[in-house]
Specification:
DNA Binding (I), subunit A, binds zinc ion, two-stranded antiparallel ribbon, 49% helix
Length: 177
């Protein structure tokens, strides 16, 4: 099962200015602050939001109290439908892979990242063709996820390479927070 303590909280702000949003069905996305505010107000308006959360909370508590029964329940659920079981296993592998490389960056997220930076290179402000740059390099355990991505022009991206991001940012007078 997923490690709950490692989950990012809704509303977390990334160094690139995007804010984390998780849909009630679990889909996760990084959005601009404007989009975040919009989503927040839409969610508050949804009449059954409180009830859904309460149900889920009760289910979580039940699982924590009855781990064996919960396991049995999943097993029965899987046995009842082989197609579902196959999908469940595939999903499990997918999640494991995601844990190491990240869940990827959607086109919408990449657009939001560029919007947030004003269409400029995060490091030098150039408006030339922007590429995705990992703030924490993948080689150092950074993930290919929106929170870890800033737009960088080709020269900055290659200058940085796998150099320490903080050192690199400092050399060009840019602070990473
Ligand atoms: Zn640049």
């Amino acid at each position: 099962m997923e490690d709950q303590t490692k989950r990012i909280r809704r509303g977390t702000i990334a160094p690139n200015g995007l804010i984390f949003w998780r849909y009630s069905k679990g889909r996760e996305v990084w959005v601009t602050p404007e989009k975040f505010a919009l989503k927040q107000s839409q969610r508050d308006k949804s009449w059954n939001f409180d009830n859904r959360e309460k149900c889920r909370e009760a289910e979580r508590r039940w699982r924590a109290r009855n781990p064996e029964k919960a396991k049995e329940k999943v097993k029965r659920w899987l046995l009842a439908d082989p197609v579902r079981a196959a999908a469940h296993i595939a999903n499990k592998h997918h999640r494991r892979r995601q844990r190491t490389t990240g869940r990827g960056v959607t086109a919408t997220e990449w657009k939001a990242i560029k919007t947030k930076s004003g269409g400029r290179c995060y490091y030098c402000g150039s408006v030339s063709r922007l590429t995705m740059d990992h703030v924490i390099p993948l080689s150092k355990g950074g993930k290919h996820e929106a929170w870890n991505i800033v737009p960088a022009c080709k020269p900055c991206n290659s200058k940085k390479g796998a150099a320490d991001p903080e050192k690199f940012a400092a050399t060009i007078g840019r602070l990473l927070v």
